[in-house]
Amino acid sequence: MVTKNTYEVHLQAALVELQKAVASQLKKTAKFRTLLKRIDKTLRTIESLLYANGRLARVLDRPEKETKMFIFYLENGKETVLKCSKIKCWNVYKKFVHANKLIRLDHELLRFFQAELQDNLSVKFRGLDLGTKQAGGFSRSCKVPGLPDVIVGLDSHFKEVKRMLLKDDIQVLTVSAPGGCGKTTLAKMLCHDNDIKGIFGDNIFYVTVSRTTSLKTIVQKLFTHHLNVNNCEFRTDEEAKNALEKMMRQMGSQKILLVLDDVWAKSESLIQELKFPIPGYTILVTSRFQFSGIGFTYELSLLNDEDARTLLCHSAFPCDGNQIDVPDDLVSKMVKCCKGFPLALTVIGASLRGQGVLKWRTTLQKWSQGQSIFYSNSQILLSLRTSVDALEDSPISHDCFLDLGAFPEDEKISASALMDMWVELYNLDKEGMYTSEYLLELSSRNLLNLIPSRKDASELEGYCNEHYVTQHDLLRELAIHLSSQDPIVQRERLFIEIHGNDLPEWWSEETQQPIDARFLSISTDETISSVWYDLKAPKVQALVLNIRSKEYTLPHFIKKLNELKFLCITSYGIYPTELQELPLISSLSNLRRMRLEHVALSPSVQSIFELNLEKLSLIMCEIGNALDSCTVDPTMLPNLIELEIESCYDLKEVPAGLCSLDRLEKLSITNCHELDALPEELGGLSNLETLRLHSCTRLSKLPKSIGKLHSLVFLDISDCLSINSLPDQIGELSGLRVLKMSGCHGLEELPDSVTNLTMLEDVICDEETSYLWSYYEGDLCDLKINVVEEDRLANFMKIVG
């Protein structure tokens, strides 16, 4: 006979084992980190309930069936959790299914202890009827902070957010933007709006969350300040949550609006905890972060020039908003410097209030000479810096933000370039999973904008590889400012901007000292000459050269950068830049990743093939005849794992020698519109796992040797408009799991050999192509056909581009 003690031992053991499993998976994988943390929190709550005040005995007094079922959930949950690290990152479908299993596990654990949680509450609130007025009485009056005297540029945002807020299918709406952009003002406007008050009445609850607020504190504020329930304390978050839900349910059919102002990233779980399945209950969140998967997000844009000018003038000339004795051109230049940030416009305008023209001119002159706007306006610095300081628990994310100052203003930055750089600077995973997390982290905090370059870009593509990054100018300037606090020779990252041939004063033959920087960025304009002083930078591991001139001579000191691991040379000029002295890089024995973008190649590119690179990227390069005389044999690029050739418009053929790179795992030849064939030697890439060929619009066929690529897992031929058939050998791709082929409009049928693709799990295609695959679904039991909407404009641009 099974005794109560036996169940107690089994339950405790199962709980401990599940906790260990969760802890181990949190260390091993990042794929399900949010869900695992949620389960970990649930288990901690359960543990505190079990071992407090003899509650374990009461749990074991339940019917035997319930106890056995709970132990089953714990034991089965362990197996579910341990499978987390085995789910492949590229398998979106399995990730989705497994995520649902984790969510179900969390729900089942919570449901079993629901009664215990309610008992906990009843003891605490016995005798307190939250649905009636207390002796002293209380009023659920709206205690929303007042509005500023002047509000500029929020009218259109107000109308759109109000419309979304009143939709029945939106329970949580987040207004997201960087600090100082007017999120809180917009929330206050909504709360004071007559229509909103007419719908929600007195049931508008406004709470400022801030960085360290707990769930208990939020509920405490609601009970004390909105409901006048004094001396109401909660021992646990769960106790507070249940008390709040009970109170809201007792309001009956009344609509309720809860405003959570200034929610930080670590407080994301608070929003989830405060979501109750109550009809008419809506949550409005303001945050400088974005919370994926929680309701809808409205991104608040910055002010346009007209509104920005109005706000600046109101702050600088408070009497009537009209400038007195300050020329229009000075006001316009000052508006431009503020970058559309309401906070910057307000603070800078106030700092110039009552000042004469001379102050306006000297302020602008300092900024034009390179002095940061943050030196003269500490309020702006403090406001925006809080978003960066919030990264203190993620030092690498903090460093990644600072690194963004290395790239030119108002230019798109390839996410792939950033991730390659961070892999080497911070010793991150070369697969890109954890590296992508830092991009997503910064994006969620509104410290950068992450934009997909393709409509169907997804994790199947390799995380954020198919994205590019933009950043507001003021945030870029903040990154530069924060990176420039130490003396030049001691800085960890050094950003140098050169106009003409005016090198910085510290950089001369006479005074130049060795610098300690690990990351060096040099930006030059169209007028630079080939004169470089020597630069002693023995610790540099990443070098970014931003160039605009038609010709560019690499600095000779580059050959002395013995620790260099990452090199990125990008031309932002109208025409591809002709690189001179490229052979200087041949001595860089530690260089692992190299990216050339928008440059004209010459036969000197041969020197690249002599390096020990792991990844080589040629983006928007003019190939010409540079590869005709180059020799690529098995002894060259011995460690190359990834080769990326993108938007090289004049690439007509791929040198057969590149197919001798037997360690190559990823090959991307994309948006190369002159390429009409691939070498038959392609089948020699025995270790190739990923082959991307999308948007090679003249590519008419795949080589028959493709069947030899038995390690191939991912194949992308989407928007290869000229492909009209697939070779029979396609069925020999025994390891193929993902096939992208939307936009292959010339394809009329599939070879019967596709029935041999037994490992194929995902086909991403357009509706027309999906019909071709539907005939084979019975033969391929694991196949999932994903239909994507065709982007006709993008296809047109690919053809004419």
| Continuous helix count | 24
Q: Looking at this structure, what is the CATH superfamily of the largest domain?
A: P-loop containing nucleotide triphosphate hydrolases
| Order of strands across the main sheet | 9-10-11-13-15-17-18-19-20-21-22-23-24
Q: Which class best fits the helix and strand makeup? A: alpha/beta
The coarse overall form would be globular
Average pLDDT over all residues: 81
Rounded Rg: 31 Å
Point out poorly predicted stretches. Answer: 115-142, 458-462, 791-801
- State the share of residues found in helices, binned by percent: 25-40%
| Distance linking N and C termini | 78 Å
Sheet-strand content, in percent, reads: 5-15%
Q: Look up the CATH topology of the largest domain.
A: Rossmann fold
InterPro entries: Apaf_helical (IPR042197), LRR_dom_sf (IPR032675), NB-ARC (IPR002182), P-loop_NTPase (IPR027417), Powdery_mildew-R_dom (IPR008808), WH-like_DNA-bd_sf (IPR036388)
Domain RPW8: 1-151
Family: Belongs to the disease resistance NB-LRR family.
GO biological process, one term: defense response
Describe the protein:
- The chain has 801 residues and is of the alpha/beta class.
- The chain has 24 helices and 24 strands.
- The strands form four sheets. The protein has a 13-stranded parallel sheet, with helices on both faces.
- Helix 23 (767-774) links the parallel strand 23 (762-765) and strand 24 (784-787).
- The longest helix has 25 residues, at 4-28.
Key phrases:
801 residues; alpha/beta; Rossmann fold; 6 domains; 13-stranded parallel sheet; five-stranded parallel sheet; 24 strands; 35% helix; disordered C terminus; NB-ARC
